[in-house]
Amino acid sequence: MIDPCSIETSPLLSVGGALAKIEADIQPVTATEQVVLKSALGRVLAEDIVSPINIPYDRNSAMDGYAISSRDINTNQPFTLSLAGTSWAGKPYRESLTSGQCVRIFTGAVVPNDADSVIIQEQVHSDGEIVVFPANVQAYRNIREAGEDVEQGSLLCRRQKKLTPTDIGLLAAAGIYDVPVRRKLNIAFFSTGDELISIGQRPEPGKIYDSNRYALAGLLTDPCYNAVDMGAIPDDRALLEDTFKQAAEYNDVIITTGGASVGDADYVKDILASCGEVNFWKIAIKPGKPLAFGKIGACYFFGLPGNPVAVVVTFQQIVAKALRQLSGAAVSKPLRLLATCTTTLKKAPGRQEFQRGILTQDENGNFFVASTGQQGSHILSSMSQGNCYIILSAECVGVSSGEKVLVEPFGTFL
Ligand code: AMP
Ligand code: MG
User: Fold this and answer.
1) Mean pLDDT confidence for 201-205
2) In angstroms, rounded to a whole number, what is the distance separating the alpha carbons of residues 176 and 178?
3) Among 213, 252, 206, residue whose Cα is nearest residue 229
4) Which ligand 1 atom minimizes the distance to the CA of 307?
5) Percent of the chain with pLDDT over 70
6) Residue 211: which of 289, 310, 286 has the closest Cα?
7) Cα 258 to ligand 1 centre (Å)
8) Closest CA to 117 of 137, 133, 136
9) Given this model, what pLDDT does residue 307 score?
10) Which pLDDT band holds residue 135 (cuts at 50, 70, 90)?
11) Which end of the chain, N or C, is surrounded by fewer C-beta atoms within 10 Å?
12) 313 DSSP assignment
């Protein structure tokens, strides 16, 4: 679709189209390394891991009480059994139970052979070696079977999984000491622009603080990435070209911000074309239209826009997905849901928009979203105040209050 307010003469590549081109182009890293479990959090598993043991390892008690055999239960009236011993968590009672006996047992303790029921202690009176049970206690309760959670030889975690804290716990429960993971990605990132000064320097007319590198450093914080901050590079064609070429030799990915548009000092796309290949350099997204994707040698290149909101939007909607694929992780999709919009949203047709919103939920579970206000691609405070994107299709020509809109909470994946 052509945006009537735009200078474009031909239709721009859609966001979906750009993602499809990236997906077709990216070859995930294949090298693996063995890491100890403690260092595996957030890494991408290179192989399926099966359990070498049953979890639980033994049949054990789910409650504190008395282990008995169902054969000894008297259904009509209270009955007594003699106390044969105690099974503690970590110190099992090693004898078999004989008829007329019970064993004191605690949560997690191995259930003795020939016992098949645990009666909770609250139901029982004990008087020295004699234990009195009420009529009609229920057999076969409060026992956790061996392998009930995970059976020996069955799958613990599938390859391509980005390991979560609970995955690490599960692997530890199986006694797994180390796991094979894909190697980390080496990523170089830098800002471009003559106007940039670093935090710590005095503000001056015409200069701005380089905020993009700080936002990017945060966005690139991930156990799968070795991200190196290469600083801010002035708008100097030769210097930029040298920096790109050098960074491409040692990295899997280069990410730049600024200079990706069509101004006189915007060299990124031209340099990419002269020392590598440009796959695309503009897409129908707002904010973030000037977005260059290509390769220099074997290194993938993302030239993001300069405007701070556009950097975050294009990173989260495009680059993050590409990096995830490159890291070897399985595809995961951001959670998207419908919410009632409580404000009016302005929108021109032509580009898919990712406006910033504040998502709330009422006591009945209904979702509502309000605009954060000004949506300029330089209004970084909108991104900080918001907690979600309001996603408006390329065709959309605005939203009235009360309409349903598609919303993507920041940082929630399925
Ligand atoms: P450009 O794409 O280089 O034309 O930059 C577009 C806008 O983003 C300009 O207003 C720049 O000053 C601003 N900008 C570029 N780089 C940064 C940066 N690293 N931090 C904050 N703003 C930036
Ligand atoms: Mg610039």
Assistant:
1) 95
2) 6
3) 213
4) 8
5) 98
6) 310
7) 5
8) 137
9) 97
10) very high
11) C
12) H
Which residue among 208, 211, 315 has the greatest number of ligand 1 atoms within 8 angstroms of its CB, and so is best to mutate?
A: 208
151 SS3 class: coil
Cα(273) to centroid(ligand 1), Å = 21
Instruction: Of 334, 350, 341, give the one whose Cα is nearest residue 410.
Output: 334
What is the residue with the minimal CA distance to atom 23 of ligand 1?
A: 306
- pLDDT confidence band for 406 (50 / 70 / 90): very high
Ligand 1 atom nearest to 260, measured from its CA: 2
**What share of the chain has pLDDT > 90, as a percent?**
93
For residue 88, what are its two tokens?
A: 């503690």
How confident is the model at residue 10, as a pLDDT?
A: 72
Q: Any idea what the Cα angle at residue 44 is, between residues 256 and 409, rounded to 5°?
A: 65
Quick one: pLDDT band at residue 136, thresholds 50, 70, 90? confident
pLDDT digits (tens, 9 = 90+) for 325-384: 999 999 999 999 999 999 999 999 999 999 999 999 999 999 999 999 999 999 999 999
d(C-alpha 62, C-alpha 324), whole Å: 41
Measured by CA distance, the residue closest to atom 14 of ligand 1 is 306
Cα 240 to middle of ligand 2, angstroms = 12
- Measured distance CA(407)–CA(309) in Å, rounded: 17
In angstroms, rounded to a whole number, what is the distance separating the alpha carbons of residues 178 and 406? Answer: 42
Distances (CA, A) of 5 to 14, 278, 347: 17, 26, 11
Residues 6 or more apart in contact with residue 30 via CB below 8 angstroms: 182, 328
Give the closest residue (by CA) to ligand 1 atom 5.
306
Pairing of strands 337-341, 367-371: parallel
Q: Is the pLDDT of residue 264 over 90?
A: no
Residues within a 6 A CB radius of ligand 1: 191, 193, 195-196, 208, 210-212, 257-261, 263, 266, 305-308
Of all protein residues, the one whose alpha carbon is nearest to atom 15 of ligand 1 is: 306
| CA of residue 302 to ligand 1 center, whole Å | 15
Q: Which of 207, 212, 214, 268 to mutate to test the pocket of ligand 1 (most atoms within 8 A of CB)?
A: 212
Instruction: Give the three-class secondary structure for 176.
Output: coil
pLDDT-derived band at 220 (thresholds 50, 70, 90) equals very high
What does DSSP assign to residue 171? H
- Across the chain, mean pLDDT equals 96
Do 321 and 22 touch, CB atoms closer than 8 A?
yes
